């Protein structure tokens, strides 16, 4: 099974269905379930911005699974801003976004 590694808090947010779009610079033809890996890195600035305690995260482990069902390309800033509640990012350098929905069965380590 394929695996996507994300920094915390984004891995946790995706695993719990609070983040449904993951931003990437690359495209993918992959459409299937995959594992969510929480890297050993924590984005402290994002934890503070999202009012999340950085000491509460699992790191360096598989924390769940999700299903990749679509790839979306943003053609302008307005589209990017419209989906901010789905990707939770302030970074605007990405033009492509991968739409994901968390799977109903979570596999916690």
Describe this entry's structure for a reader.
- The protein is globular and about 35 Å long.
- The protein has four helices and five strands, in the order E-H-E-E-H-E-H-H-E.
- The protein has a five-stranded mixed β-sheet with strand order 1-3-4-5-2.
- It has helices at residues 10-15, 44-49, 77-82, 84-87; strands spanning 3-8, 21-23, 33-42, 61-73, 96-102.
- 20% of the residues lie in helices and 36% in strands.
- The chain is α+β, with helices and mostly antiparallel strands.
Topology summary:
Blueprint: E1 3-8, H1 10-15, E2 21-23, E3 33-42, H2 44-49, E4 61-73, H3 77-82, H4 84-87, E5 96-102
Strand content: 35-45%
Helix content: 10-25%
Largest sheet, order of strands side by side? 1-3-4-5-2
Please give the count of helices: 4
Summarize the structure in short:
This protein is of the alpha+beta class and 109 residues long. The chain contains four helices and five strands, in the order E-H-E-E-H-E-H-H-E.
Q: Which tags fit this structure?
A:
single chain; 109 residues; alpha+beta; five-stranded mixed β-sheet; 4 helices; 20% helix; disordered C terminus
């Amino acid at each position: 099974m394929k695996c996507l590694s994300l920094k915390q808090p984004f891995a946790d947010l995706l695993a719990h269905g609070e983040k449904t779009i993951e931003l990437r610079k690359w495209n993918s033809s992959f459409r299937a379930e995959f594992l969510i890996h929480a890297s050993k890195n924590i984005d402290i600035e994002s934890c503070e911005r999202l009012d999340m305690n950085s000491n509460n995260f699992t790191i360096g482990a598989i924390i769940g699974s999700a299903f990749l069902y679509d790839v979306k390309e943003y053609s302008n800033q307005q589209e990017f801003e419209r989906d901010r509640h789905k990707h939770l990012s302030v970074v605007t350098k990405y033009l492509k976004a991968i739409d994901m929905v968390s799977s109903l069965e979570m596999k916690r380590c």
